[in-house]
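== Sequence entry ==
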Amino acid sequence: MRTVQCRKHGKELPGLDAPPMPGPLGEDIYNNVSARAWEEWQTLQTMLINEHHLSLRDADSRKYLLDQMNRFLRNEETETPSGYVKPED
């Protein structure tokens, strides 16, 4: 099993099986983000898309999600849906 030093969680965890997107950003995520952190981001991304009624065809929506993803994976503050309560570890 491939592991990475996860930027989000600050410890060695199982990594992704492949880069989640093409290009340098996908390679960076593949090398520095755990599968667990990526799954957590996917969950938050889905909530943000639903909460804000985003369309992935819209360039501003994609830019917003990219910004939120980068913030999330760097442990910076991100938007959360209203009423969202983070589950305990």
Q: What stands out?
A: Residues 35-52 form the longest helix (18 residues).
